[in-house]
Amino acid sequence: MGLDATDRRLLDVLQKQGRISNADLSERVNLSPSACHRRVQRLEDEGFIRNYVALLNPTKLGRTTVVWVEITLSSQSDEILNSFEREVRKVPEVMECHLMAGKADFLLKVAAIDTEDFARLHRSRLASLPGVAQLQSSFSLREVQNTTAFPV
Q1: Is there a single domain that holds both residue 21 and residue 71?
Q2: pLDDT tens digits along 5-63
Q3: Which of 14, 26, 28, 116 lies at a CB distance of 3.0 to 4.6 Å from 33, suitable for a disulfide?
Q4: Between the CA of residue 65 and those of 92, 113, 140, what are the distances in Å?
Q5: Residues 96-121: what's their mean pLDDT?
Q6: Does 1 have pLDDT greater than 90?
Q7: What pLDDT is recorded for position 86?
Q8: pLDDT tens-digit map of 59-80
Q9: What residues have CB less than 8 Å from 119, skipping those under 6 apart?
Q10: Across the beta sheet with 106-112, what order do the strands follow?
Q11: Residue 2 pLDDT > 90, yes or no?
């Protein structure tokens, strides 16, 4: 089923305020609480809402160094790709991993404590991932924009 304007308003509010009560949400989108609840349930059931999470403050956790790592594999065989993807999921500092088109095979977003922590992680975990032929790291100097909210 498609999204109408009310569904889009619901999604917009929920992705910015995931802990909003159903009563407050229904007021914000001009629906009765029961209709609001039914719509949110449908959006969950249909997979528009994938999950609810708490977004943590990386500074409070001491993870102030963000590194983007381009990884080139020795081969793009199914065996190497599958093995790399399985093992990279086991590295908790890897916040995102994307299979890419272009020069690098994968792009990783890594949250490290500092450059020394990243150097340790680079040596002990990233360089030893299956099939890794080359790594190119770029350190973020400052976060300019960071959102989890999709335009709806």
Answers
A1: no
A2: 999 999 999 999 999 999 999 999 999 999 999 999 999 999 999 999 999 999 999 99
A3: 26
A4: 14, 6, 7
A5: 98
A6: no
A7: 98
A8: 999 999 999 999 999 999 999 9
A9: none
A10: 94-99, 106-112, 65-73, 132-139
A11: no
Cα separations in angstroms, 12 against 43, 46, 150, 151: 12, 16, 8, 8
Residue 71 host element (H or E):
strand 65-73
- What is the CATH number for 28? 1.10.10.10
Structural domain including 74 reads 65-139
Q: What are phi and psi of 38, to 5 degrees?
A: -60, -45
Same domain for 121 and 74, yes or no, is: yes
* Structure token pair of residue 2: 């498609």
Q: Quote the number of domains for the chain.
A: 2
